[in-house]
Amino acid sequence: MNNVSFSFKNKNAVVTGGAAGIGFQITTSFLEAGGNVAVWDYSEQALQSAKDQLSKFGSQVQFVQVDIGNRDSVAKAASSLPWAVDILVNNAGITRDKSFAKMTADEWDAVISTNLTGLFNVTKGLLEKFNAASAHKRIISISSVVGLYGNFGQLNYAAAKAGVIGMTKTWGKELGRKGFTANAIAPGFIATAMTKAMPKEAIDAMAAKIPVARLGDTSDIANAVLFLASEQAAYINGATLSVDGGIVL
Fold first, then answer.
1. pLDDT at 203 over 90
2. Per-residue pLDDT for 1 more than 50?
3. 147: which of 153, 157, 161, 179 is 20 to 30 A away, CA to CA?
4. What is the mean pLDDT of the chain?
5. How far is residue 61's CA from residue 71's CA, in Å, rounded to a whole number?
6. 168, 210, 214, 170: which is closest to 191 by C-alpha?
7. Is 157 a catalytic residue?
8. Whole-prediction pTM
9. CATH fit for domain 12-243, picks 3.40.50.720, 3.40.50.300, 3.40.47.10, 1.20.120.140
10. Active-site position among 42, 149, 157, 235
11. What are the domain boundaries of the chain?
């Protein structure tokens, strides 16, 4: 049996939140595998940083400032795409952590608007932008392990990420006959710039909860995304893949 290697030459992806953290690694991995990527991100600063770091990829990458919670912003970004879409990665998300008793309506609304309604806006806005000739259209959404088991102080985030899983299953049922697969990835504790800035004791305490005894790397999530985006994953549909070192066991 041959080893699997991924090539996305002549494939076009949209990655929301693709200018920083996990999203940036997903963007980079697609580009390195020969794909074209539209990076949609809310942060102008993150977009500029990503643009500087990815300049060697030239016309393979497009950068667009988008507020995915705003349908007009999504529609404008969709109209600017230079090519038909093969792959959508719904990665953008925010946190407004607080216990339920202390959480404000604004904190609830902000997270639901971006992390759940934002996925509806983007996927709905791009549905007609997918490559009609392709039998391998992909929708991959980033959920979270907290959407599977909840988490103290993250009611809004956990609710949104659980909703992502429900949306994914429904897309899988409704769009499968149209050449799509829809899948979700539920990351566990991932080492990003934010977590790396935490005290070592806090990081060690997090790692101690994980059976493989380490935090995940952004490449762990990007590798899973590339697999689900590939033609080799054509029969995986409506699934949620936990990439968490076994923390949900």
1. no
2. no
3. 179
4. 95
5. 23
6. 214
7. yes
8. 0.95
9. 3.40.50.720
10. 157
11. 12-243
